[in-house]
Amino acid sequence: MVTRCTQYLLALCLLVSVPACARGLPDLTGLIDDNFPAVVKINTVERNRTTGGLPPQYQEIPDIFRHLLEPRRQQRPVASMGSGFIVSSDGYVVTNNHVVDGADEVVVTLTDRREYEAKIIGTDTRSDLALLKIDADNLQTIRWGDSEKLKVGEWVVAIGSPFGLDYSASAGIVSAMGRSIPNENRENYVPFIQTDVAINPGNSGGPLFNLKGEVVGINSQIYTRSGGSIGLSFAIPSSVARDVVEQLKEKGRVDRGWLGVAIQDVDRNLAKAMGLGKPNGALVAQVEAGAPADQAGIKVGDIITRFDGRKIMVSGDLPHVVGQTRPGSEVAVDLMREGRQKTVRLTVGALPGDEGEHQAGTSVPSGVGGRLGLIVDEIPETLKQRWGVESGVLVKRVVPGKPGAKAGLRSGDIIAQLGFEEVEDLKDYNKVVEDLPADELLPIRFFRAGQPTFRTIQIDD
User: Fold this and answer.
1) Do the annotations mark residue 280 as ligand-binding?
2) Which domains does the chain have, with CATH numbers?
3) Which one from 101, 124, 128, 302 is the annotated catalytic residue?
């Protein structure tokens, strides 16, 4: 039986605990009010998206033959949307690369409903970032924060336009730091921030704030089985984004460090066999001949435990650290070799094929890139060795809206076949392109990060 005294104590506990609980939650109203004007909505249009294709039962047919069975494809405009934020009062805007990838028109909308057509200053597929420019002045900007100081459990806030719902805010906590998520080319240069903030389609490219109102991340990816948020989202850290943005603004591309090694994780048994107290570091499984690692004397079987003073706990940490190191830098590398600690010094190389698809704005002089809209060159010997290719041409730049861009080609791809003709070198490429028929779907074979891929390309002239 509950006594009156017990009832009084329960009521008192409720009165005390509810305000105490409320006091433990952050008040986000000021942060959101202060930063809304610096967040933008981005709408894009791709005017000539190819539609149509084969029924599902024919999808296993190789691409090189598929075009013979496909119905005539139709061209139609495709619209998409995303978010972004202003980083300078004179109109520079940051968003995701996948928000503007392939777009012929990019429109930035401010919170006061002003709209501006944006120029693409530069894009970087490896970090999924893009820098835009609108013709406006005296704009409110965000303040960058230091993502290196973020801790798991810290509150963060996202602002963006999920599903086109303008300028929505959502909050949550940092769930994990330094997540390694390889992209479609199996490259891994971003140590993602994992959060449980509700991020949905349309939030891409929007800012992730700490409680100081500083941008510590750019919302980029979600893990979902439904197409909507399930509380598993990933943001590009500001420590990566700031460097990428500065390079895109300065030169329209991003230069990254490169060692020339293939690596793997160290498990418990390998750690014991190689003299480590616990599993950590990146085990060198292969060294490319002539690469910076080879020149420095790094060998297969070495376990890299520190790079330029930064600990390498798992193999995925090494690409993050190396990629952020400027080419030409001289660094110390700590490693374990046959159970003994060793330090070597090396000069960091430049990651091959690291060119932005868009440079110095979207306006491109007429005729640049030829019939395909591709600027190509001979393949450097280091890249041939790295990807194991012997012939072809290296794509240095892709002109937006041209056949190469519509076919999905990117800078760094190596074209090995056009139509039914093999491409041996630059001279061969120019001859093959000149002879390609117009208004006809043709197979194109290229290598991306060493992986062969067939697609189709069509010349409009």
Assistant:
1) no
2) 38-133 (2.40.10.10), 143-251 (2.40.10.10), 257-350 (2.30.42.10), 370-457 (2.30.42.10)
3) 128
